[in-house]
Every structure is written in structure tokens, then in C-alpha cells.
Records
---
Amino acid sequence: MGWANSVPIFHEDVTFILQEEIPHITIPYIDDSPIKGPKSQYLDDAGVPETIPQNPGIRCFIWEHFHNLNHIVQHMWNFLWSKGNSMHMQNTSSWTLLHS
């Protein structure tokens, strides 16, 4: 079996893994899964972005975006490890090197 269908297969797999997050956080496209940022910067009346109470140096919209990013990464991680040894990456020392 060749690699001719690898991109559509990859896209289908990623779409399946992230189906709970489509379309509000991500919409996988071919071999890319962009993560949507917040719709607002949470600006106050003076035009200053709101910060999170626990750390006034972090803006709310950045915190929200990283929360979404973490959510997507956790979905991918949990899927990978839920499949057991069959999904682990092959040890590269067993690969055949091609020389030109």
C-alpha cells in the first residue's frame, strides 16, 4: 500500500479525534488544525484589556486561547495513549536509510 491516500486518512483521523471541538474551537483542514482565538480582547471602557485575577500580567483573551490550545493537545494526547502500544511511534533505529 502506498502513501497516495495518507493526507485524506490523516484528515479523517484528526477530524474524528477533534469532533467535539468542531466548529467552536477548531476546524481541521487537510494537514492543519488551526485553533480559533477569542472573539474579544475583553477591553474595558478605557480600552485596556482585562487580565485574569490570579495573575494581572496575563490578559483574559490570551488565557482563553491557551486554554483552548491545551484542550486540543489533551484530546490528541489522550487518543494517542488510549490506543496502547499499537499507536506508539516506531523506533527510528529500525528504519532503512535511503542513500542518493
---
Amino acid sequence: MALGSVFHQSNESGDATAVDIITPIPGTSAKIGVSYQGDEGLTVGFFDTYMSPVTGYPVNTLNPPQGSSHMLGAQLRFDVSKYFHRTNATG
């Protein structure tokens, strides 16, 4: 199964003297990946999350400004519960 999502936000104050972007959050982010869930209890997923640079945030802060980035993630799960047999009614 292929999955994906895209998020975009913008902030406009309407005041020419105000700062348009006051939060250090990327304006655009996207996540795409593939996932597999088998009947035997195996679940596998691989995802890539993209975040655009944080713009408009003051550069004279302690931390350097963030550029765009990709974050790769994976999930591997094997459910072994069905391979263990119960010995009584309470499990």
C-alpha cells in the first residue's frame, strides 16, 4: 500500500510592520511511503518525510537556521502472539 500526505501553511498578519512568520515551523512538509501487512504477522513500512526550510524566523538566535531536510523512517514488526498457544481459559 502506498501512502502520502502534504501539508502547507502560510501566515499573513495584514500589518506592514508586523513579522509575517513568528513560529519556527516549516511552511511545507510532505510524507510518502509504502507499507505491507501480511497474514503471517509481518508488518513492514518505509517512509520519507520532507520539510522545507524555516523562513522568516530571526537569524540572530542561538541555533543556526534550518535548511530543508529529509527524514527517512522504517518500521518492522512481527507479531508472534499467534505462535504461542494458551494453556487455560485465562490466557
